[in-house]
Amino acid sequence: MISDLIGVLIVVLGAAYALFVGACVYGFVTAERTSGRTAGRTAGSTAGWTQKRTASGSVRRSETVLPGDVEEKRRTVDTAAFVSIIVPARNEQESIVQCVSALLDNDYPHGSYEIIVVDDQSTDATVANVRDTFSNEIAAGRIAIVATAPATDGMLPGKQHALDTGIRASRGATILTTDADCTVGPGWIRALRHAIAETGSAAAGPVRCRLGQRPSLFHRFQALELSGLLGVGAGTMSLGHPTICSSASLAYTRALYDQWRAANTQNTSRLVAGADETIVHVAKELTGHSPRFVLDPEAVVDADPNDRVLTFLLQRARWASMGGRYPAPRVVAVSASIFLFFLLFIVAPLMGILIPWAIALLLKTAADGCLLFVSARLLHPDRRLLPFWPLAEVFHAPYIVFVSIIGTLAPLRWKR
């Protein structure tokens, strides 16, 4: 009886998973078209955003040629609108200079944005590196360094406390956030500011795993995972039902943030690492305008992959800890159903429930393959990640179940 029930359930959940991922693929393709990418490609061009390299081998973003109508529309955006960029940093001495340098190299008018580096109790040379490298910019008021105070009851916890500290010290009506271990392209500010000017609420951009010339198998797996997350995030947001995004490439109006903050400081117990991303869930409710996923090469942020498996798992567990705490019930329901499907997907073959498991395997593999086909090819067209996808499928369900359990049960914090 139990075996029969599990067999039916795993097939039903597998079908639901395939339908959900299929909807994400449709939404992703729709978002790609509305971004102007499809209209701008010439016949025979390679679909995708490449990572070119300098003579030293370091990654730099490829130049992007926008369709004429999109570029003209971009120029009409109020470039005088002041933007505040918040960069929370805790012990990021190795990457903070590269991050801030990329922000300073943006093509947005230099007098129209500020960079707020938030020192979240760093114990290394993060602050010293910023002060030594960017002393002129600090003196000119283009960069400010603020420090977080120890969190107390009633404050937003973890990374949210650092972001809140930076936002409260900023001046812009538009807030952009990125991570200290990431680098943005020269058009990043303009691309997200353009989206905010059109939506009046919130916008998110893609985060891509930065791969070297000879990436390891572990790094390729991480790139595949981020590509899949991009597909889900862009796809669901395009369909008007946002689920996930990354604060490494996120923008919203100050008015929206103030409303979000007022609601969440009344119940900080539900907030964990990544809670700032839930602002896209309530954007339409609070402003009347839907958020937008900016599926545009200029909005891409590059992030280094983790080198250590333990660090990777702890980071993903922090991400997974949001599963039951999203403000949108639909997102919680989707997260719970996927977790249950993956759990049964692991258990079924151990119980000898092979035929339903085989059906679920086909559904999952086909759905994941379609999603990665559109997303990984776009982010990493020169990396040939798809041949590694079948091997990644072997670890996908057990990995998701593991980090979900750890993230739910363990009191993980942002960068201990």
Any idea how many domains? 1
Q: Structural class, from secondary structure content?
A: alpha/beta
CATH architecture: Alpha-Beta Complex
Secondary structure: number of strands: 12
Distance between the termini: 46 Å
Description of the molecule:
The protein has helices at 2-34, 37-40, 68-75, 96-104, 126-133, 135-139, 158-168, 188-199, 217-238, 254-264, 279-287, 309-320, 329-350, 354-379, 389-409; strands spanning 51-53, 59-61, 83-89, 113-119, 143-147, 174-177, 182-184, 202-204, 207-209, 250-253, 292-293, 301-303. The protein is α/β, with parallel strands linked by helices and 416 residues long. It has a single domain (9-38, 59-409), classed as Spore Coat Polysaccharide Biosynthesis Protein SpsA, Chain A (Alpha-Beta Complex), CATH 3.90.550.10. The strands form three sheets. The chain has a seven-stranded mixed beta sheet, sandwiched between helices. The longest helix has 33 residues, at 2-34. It is globular, with a radius of gyration of 21 Å. The chain starts with a helix and ends in a 7-residue tail after the last helix. 46% of the residues are buried.
Topology record:
Layout: H1 2-34, H2 37-40, E1 51-53, E2 59-61, H3 68-75, E3 83-89, H4 96-104, E4 113-119, H5 126-133, H6 135-139, E5 143-147, H7 158-168, E6 174-177, E7 182-184, H8 188-199, E8 202-204, E9 207-209, H9 217-238, E10 250-253, H10 254-264, H11 279-287, E11 292-293, E12 301-303, H12 309-320, H13 329-350, H14 354-379, H15 389-409
Parallel strand pairs: 3-4, 3-6, 4-5, 8-11, 9-12
Antiparallel strand pairs: 1-2, 6-10, 7-12, 8-10
Helix pairs in contact: 1-9, 1-13, 1-14, 9-14, 10-11, 12-15, 13-15
